[in-house]
Structure prediction request, 83 residues.
Amino acid sequence: ENIHPSARSIFEAAGFTVDHSEAGLYLWATEGRDAWASMDRLADLGILAGPGHFYGSHFPQHVRFSLTATDERVAAAADRLTP
Prediction:
């Protein structure tokens, strides 16, 4: 997978497993629970993602992150996500 190592470590530190991500623009990640539960957690932190349910029945426990913001905005979201 071509995911930047620091992006992977940020999501892993927050309890996610990153998989099904072949490029660095969109990351598929799971906490091992229903995507809507993850979406609630992320929304409480002010982080927008897409629930796997929106992309078909294949990834009901995944959320899709889009890393299209500036580096500063992505870093700010990472600070909110990690303990």
Notes: The beta strands are 17-18, 26-30, 50-51, 62-66. The longest helix spans residues 71-81. Residues 28 and 37 are 15 Å apart (CA to CA). The two ends are 25 Å apart (CA to CA).
